[in-house]
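Lab intake sheet, docking and co-folding queue.

SAMPLE TYPE: protein with bound small molecule
LIGAND NAME: pyridoxal-5'-phosphate
LIGAND FORMAT: SMILES
REQUESTED OUTPUT: full 3D complex as structure tokens
PRIORITY: normal
SUBMITTED BY: R.K., bench team

The fields below were copied directly from the construct record.
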Amino acid sequence: MKLKIPEHIKNLIPYPPGKPIEELEREYGVSGSIKMASNENSLGPSPKAQAAIAKALQDLHRYPDGSCYYLAHKLAARLGVEREQLIFANGSDEILALLAEAFIQPGDEAISSHPSFLVYPKVTQAQGGINRGVPLRDMRHDLPAILNEITSRTRLIFLDNPNNPTGTIFSRMEFEDFLAQVPEQVVVVLDEAYWDFVEVGQQLDARSYINGDRPLVSLRTFSKAYGLAGLRIGYGLMNREIADCLNRVRPPFNVNSLAQIGAMAALDDDEHYTKTLAMTRDGIVWLGEQFRRLGLRPYPTQANFFLVELAGLDGQTFYKAMLRRGVIVRPMTAYGYPDFIRITAGTRAENRRLLAAAAEVLREGTA
Ligand SMILES: *Cc1c(COP(=O)(O)O)cnc(C)c1O
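RESULT FIELD (auto-filled):
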């Protein structure tokens, strides 16, 4: 092969691939399994979104609206921001990539916690940038240590709040203290994929920071609380100057038409949203108690998932034993936590099934 593959592309590690459920089921000889591995909404998509999408199918021969005009109007009004401060994308994942494209040149640096969302180092490295990983402290972002990692080449700081995979958050005071010490040329990316699940009163309001003297981007998604992960749509809130940069690198039709329509309908589906939050809270409380009863160690979480320390078991082995019982969880090996798993809270029935399977594995061993 004569391909000249750049060194920084060769060094990228692909996102850990998951097999389709159907394939896993065939492999393990099970059926009717439940997926509690990807922090999705077990309640399903908003019924209003489903109905709106069904109606829109006849227009699939048209290109989508490249500016997400109606969605931007609706969301801007709801948030009390200007339309020009919003960027929509093919999942908030894509905004991470756009940020790296817009701000990282070869040799530039970005900072992210370790472990944290695996996409952060990837988007930086894909631009020839250098990711500086800062270890979590007590399972939380170590904001002072992150400040210490800033150099003249730092362009981006990625902070997921709550953090994936630990579910922990920082307080408003901790964050404001941090933000005030970040140099003005560094863009702070506040990834709020799990914002909806955070206890009321503990949520940050990114709107109060985006027009400040520190450049800040807040990312939200329709993939988690709104149950639309398969549609791929998320958005970023930022000042006009950063939005203008991202619009320059953004592909013209990055958000498909069904995603735009689904997201608008989901925003109006208060019933689905409220039910989702109630289901998640119940599940988190109940599962937390039950995990502890089994001798496992769930970490306190503000998201719709738990990081669970296994009682001396290997995560990969536990994952496979659960799979044989038709329950899909996420081993944390790729995150550098070999004896942990991550579990998404599901419906009441799913939570019970998960717990029964976990109890069986702990009782009978992982065979
Ligand atoms: C799920 C998740 C996202 C959202 O991804 P989408 O591309 O919007 O589906 C972003 N950040 C974190 C930390 C996540 O866990």
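REVIEWER NOTE: The domain at 13-44+271-364 is CATH 3.90.1150.10 (Aspartate Aminotransferase, domain 1).
SIGN-OFF: pending second check by T.M.
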